[in-house]
Amino acid sequence: MTKLTFHGNIVSQPVRTTLWTLRTLGLEHDYKHVELFKDTRSEEFTSKVNVFGQVPALDVDGTLISQSNTIIRYLANEHDKDGIILPTGDHLERAQAEEILDIAATSVRFNMLKAIGPIAIGPLFLGREKISEEEEKKLIEEVQATFGKLNTKLGDKTYFTGDKLTAGDVHIFNEIQTATALLKIDLSDHSQLNTWYEKVGQNEVVAELSKEMFEAFAALSK
Ligand SMILES: N[C@@H](CCC(=O)N[C@@H](CS)C(=O)NCC(=O)O)C(=O)O
Fold first, then answer.
1. What is residue 220's predicted lDDT score, i.e. its pLDDT?
2. Residue ranges of the GST C-terminal domain (predicted)?
3. pLDDT of the chain along its 222 residues, tens only?
4. Is 85 within a domain?
5. Looking at ligand 1, which residue's alpha carbon is closest to its atom 16?
6. How far is CA 77 from each of CA 72, 80, 92, 94, 99, rounded to the nearest angstrom?
7. β-bridge pairing 57-60 and 63-66
8. CA distance 184 to 89
9. CA of 157 to the centre of ligand 1 (A)
10. Does residue 86 lie in a domain region?
11. Domain range spanning residue 95?
């Protein structure tokens, strides 16, 4: 049987989506906790796990893969013949679900990081100076504009691709979860997105990972 070893940290959004995939598909794996900004930048990690110094990374019988979407696609191709996390069979349906995964990892993530980097992560964890209130307001407006675009993309569907939750919904959820928590904002101006967010949050594995993430954040801020 294939041996899977996962390198991650629960506070990371792409790590949570990858863990959601492993747990939802019921895949046994060893878990290696990695300290962000410390272990990830060590010689040991960059020489043995990921030269780009990032988690998630998955070791499959000694072969390492990084990039959350690559790992998710690999796990889906290998272990999700029934289309539990991504649709199988119809290529166009699959492409629509993968589009959401990629929107999460590019447009959404980029825009969230642009704000949470200087507003929260920099000052809290990297010893950087706080930015001005004016700059902060502008970045939060851009985040809200991205929420607006997601609200439009979602429309009146239950999930981004229709009536079934896919890995892309979870990926977007995790990016929004971290952004709203760190920026102390909410989705109240975007009603469909708000309803969707609450529904995704009720998924059993998402709820379990959220609990673990908030506990880890609480421990970090002590
Ligand atoms: N595109 C990558 C992004 C991974 C990423 O940004 N990982 C961050 C945590 S969220 C990281 O490992 N940072 C460590 C560091 O900067 O030292 C993916 O989707 O896997």
1. 81
2. 90-222
3. 899 999 999 999 999 999 999 999 999 999 999 999 999 999 999 999 999 999 999 999 999 999 999 999 999 999 999 999 999 989 999 999 999 999 999 999 999 999 999 999 999 888 899 999 999 999 999 999 999 999 999 999 999 999 999 999 999 999 999 999 999 999 999 999 999 999 999 999 999 999 999 999 888 876
4. no
5. 37
6. 9, 6, 16, 11, 16
7. antiparallel
8. 41
9. 30
10. no
11. 91-220
Q: Residue 62 belongs to a domain with what CATH number?
A: 3.40.30.10
CA–CA separation, 222 and 218 (whole Å): 7
Query: Where among 38, 56, 79 does a domain terminate?
Result: 79
List all residues whose CB is within 6 A of at least one atom of ligand 1.
12-14, 36-37, 40-41, 53-56, 67-68, 105
Contact call for residues 120 and 183 (beta carbons, < 8 A): yes
Closest residue (by CA) to atom 18 of ligand 1? 67
Choose one of 79, 108, 124: the last residue of a domain. 79
Q: Determine the pLDDT at residue 170.
A: 99
DSSP track, 113-174: HHHHIIIIIHHHHS-PPPPPHHHHHHHHHHHHHHHHHHHHHHTT-SBTTBSS--HHHHHHHH
Gap from CA of 210 to ligand 1 centroid (Å): 18
161 and 194, same domain (yes or no): yes
Give a yes or no: residue 18 inside a domain: yes
